[in-house]
């Protein structure tokens, strides 16, 4: 790890007025600094900044510095969010990691994290060895000729499914952006991963009211049951009346360069009977436009099976 200056602003105003890299739980930033992937000259420890609180009175509002474990266990948090958080990491990491930091975490692509290897995200123009190399864990949706790195966050998938927004603050004011449009596809500029502007800080996560999201789940398929990143995941909220689907919200993780919303699957479900056959027919729409690499083509059928599994989990006993 290279030398750096550490300061600890106590207010939002002081934090956004100071140039530097923000540090909350440090579960991603410190790792990358140790690997020399990131070498900030100035780090701002923002843990004393008043960006906490969980409010479920009208939808859900979460301060950016709330810890993952506290959010997961809070009454009134939608099940899909709680489950995504619980499946994200070990208890120790969940106790440290903040929701804002989790949404800003960098890809777990091994080429990105190995400074001896080229990587367009880390060093633009250097190349993407994953395209022809070890790519089993990589994305099949939203990829480009410059990058196929998978987005790492579990809870971001759940939040995208629920149309969450971020409130961002800076020295010039604040703005709100939809989380689904906050993340950028790699295209020709994979180093630009999101819409956070210089000097901006995530202040709050806002989930609009959705009463029927009380019936929701997050299914995560991974190589081992303990702490591991997703091969594929599905965040699903489902509204069923009289054994027929009224509405659905679905997003996928582990398969895209960003959390991947699936409006085509949602549309196929609306009005359909809550049956295995209807779920399989709707899930067959998932993965349209996929570009599998040499070792990850299995993710397309896996995505469809994962969605069906989540739908069945939500309707078991009601069909």
UniProtKB/TrEMBL annotation:
Domain FAD-binding PCMH-type: residue ranges? 1-212
Domain of life, per lineage: Bacteria
Q: Which residues form the signal peptide?
A: none
Q: Return the Pfam families for the record.
A: CO_deh_flav_C, FAD_binding_5
InterPro entries membership: CO_DH_flav_C, CO_DH_flav_C_dom_sf, Diverse_Substr_Oxidored, FAD-bd_PCMH, FAD-bd_PCMH-like_sf, FAD-bd_PCMH_sub1, FAD-bd_PCMH_sub2, Mopterin_DH_FAD-bd
Entry keyword Phosphoprotein: no
Q: What name appears for this protein in its UniProt entry?
A: FAD-binding molybdopterin dehydrogenase
Kindly list the GO molecular function terms attached to this UniProt entry: FAD binding; oxidoreductase activity
| Keywords, sorted A to Z | Oxidoreductase
| Organism taxonomic ancestry | Bacteria, Bacillati, Actinomycetota, Actinomycetes, Pseudonocardiales
């Amino acid at each position: 790890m290279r030398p750096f200056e550490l300061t600890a602003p106590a207010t939002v105003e002081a934090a956004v007025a100071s140039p530097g890299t923000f540090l909350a739980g440090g579960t991603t930033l410190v790792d990358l600094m140790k690997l020399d992937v990131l070498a900030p000259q100035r780090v701002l420890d923002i843990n004393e900044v008043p960006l906490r609180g969980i409010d479920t009175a009208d939808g859900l509002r979460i301060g950016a510095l709330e810890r993952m474990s506290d959010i997961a266990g809070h009454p009134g948090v939608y099940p899909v969010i709680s489950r995504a958080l619980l499946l994200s990491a070990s208890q120790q990491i969940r106790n440290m990691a903040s929701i804002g930091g989790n949404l800003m975490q960098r890809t777990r692509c091994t080429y990105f994290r190995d400074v001896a290897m080229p990587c367009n995200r880390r060093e633009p123009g250097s190349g993407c060895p994953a395209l022809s190399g070890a790519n089993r864990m990589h994305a099949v949706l939203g990829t480009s000729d410059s990058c196929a790195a998978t987005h790492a966050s579990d809870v971001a998938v759940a939040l995208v499914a629920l149309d969450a927004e971020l409130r961002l603050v800076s020295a010039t004011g604040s703005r709100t952006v939809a989380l689904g449009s906050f993340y950028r596809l790699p295209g020709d500029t994979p180093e630009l991963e999101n819409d956070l502007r210089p000097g901006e800080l995530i202040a709050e996560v806002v989930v609009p009211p959705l009463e029927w999201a009380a019936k929701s789940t997050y299914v995560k398929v991974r190589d081992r049951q303990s702490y591991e990143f997703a091969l594929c995941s599905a965040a699903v909220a489902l509204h069923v009346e009289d054994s027929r689907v009224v509405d659905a919200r679905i997003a996928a993780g582990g398969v895209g360069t960003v959390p991947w919303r699936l409006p085509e699957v949602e549309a196929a479900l609306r009005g359909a009977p809550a049956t295995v056959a209807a779920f399989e027919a709707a899930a067959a729409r998932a993965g349209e436009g996929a570009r599998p690499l040499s070792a990850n083509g299995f993710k397309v059928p896996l995505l469809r099976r994962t969605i069906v599994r989540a739908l069945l989990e939500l309707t078991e006993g009601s069909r």
